[in-house]
């Protein structure tokens, strides 16, 4: 599966935080623990997507 290297969060594919987290974990497994420049861009995109999908805690300040 190919992803664009944009750092903006795509709202058209509403995935859950759990789904995005699983993709982040898979990225780390594939990389062997060290991300290339391209993988870092993908990681950054995924983290932004995860943050947008993660439920917000009522106690968060």
Walk me through the structure.
There is one protein chain. The protein is an all-alpha fold and 61 residues long. It is 52% helix and 0% strand. It has two helices and no strands. The chain has helices at 17-31, 37-53. Helix 1 runs antiparallel to helix 2. The longest helix has 17 residues, at 37-53. The protein is elongated. The chain starts with 16 loop residues before the first helix and ends in an 8-residue tail after the last helix.
Task: Indicate the topology.
Layout: H1 17-31, H2 37-53
Helix pairs in contact: 1-2
User: What is the chain-wise order of helices and strands?
Assistant: HH
For the sheet with most strands, the description reads: none
Q: What would you report as the Rg, rounded to the nearest angstrom?
A: 12 Å
Shape: elongated
Number of helices: 2
Residue windows where pLDDT falls under 50 for at least 5 positions: none
Structural class: mainly alpha
Distance between the termini: 37 Å
Helix content class: 40-55%
Mean pLDDT: 83
Q: Approximately how much beta-strand content do the residues carry?
A: under 5%
The total beta strand count reads 0
Quickly describe the structure.
With 61 residues, the protein is an all-alpha fold. The chain contains 2 helices and no strands. Helix 1 packs antiparallel against helix 2 (37-53).
Please name the defining characteristics of this protein:
single chain; 2 helices; mainly alpha; 61 residues; elongated
